[in-house]
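Subgroup meeting minutes
Present: P.N., E.W., G.H.
Scribe: E.W.

1. P.N. recapped why we're keeping a running log of single-chain structure predictions: easier to compare across weeks, and new members can see raw inputs and outputs side by side.
2. G.H. added today's entry (228 aa).
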Amino acid sequence: MAQLLVLSATADPEVLPALGLLPHRVRHIAAEPAALVNAPAADLIFLDARKDLTGSKSLAKILQTTGLDAPLVIVVTEGGMAAISHEWGANDIILETAGPAEIDARIRLAIARANDRGNGEELISASGVVIDDTTYSAKVHGRPMDLTFKEFELLRFLAQHPGRVFSREQLLSEVWGYDYFGGTRTVDVHIRRLRAKLGDLEAIIGTVRNRGYCFNLSKDEQEAVAAL
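Output recorded in log:
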């Protein structure tokens, strides 16, 4: 059972209706900077961005500057998803209509990733690319990459499983969520954009015909892994 904090402009208990069906302990406070001063400790924070994307983004940035330890999950409407980027500093996003199973899974995964970061696993460095999970940013040859939220999520997921081939359906499930209704072409579009932004390192995202995509390690890195 996790300690959860929900930030909403009106301290609305219906931000995520299905959350009430889970056994977690939930506290609601107003989504205002002043309210953060005495905010209770939490394992995870939900930020309600359904009605005020601009104000919510500002509050998310304030949470970053205060040294937020708990993972931050943004609650949005389907129409608001396009406005979320790495600048928010969020660990995940979730639709207000999400069911209890999805909410619980995202809570568990976000907290687990936060624990991994606490153990020094916040950086992924491979094949000339450095991915920083704490700032939702990535660099190629030391140069910052301008990535959208989903581009970052896709790159990070592939880099976390080097050499493993994932089908388009698997990537949709892992990165977009099992309730995403778009087609697999979405994956192809994001892969193409990622490769363009990787420049001369575009080949680190490999295509395995009739199977899917994978993250390729360099030859030296492959040899180092094989020697373990």
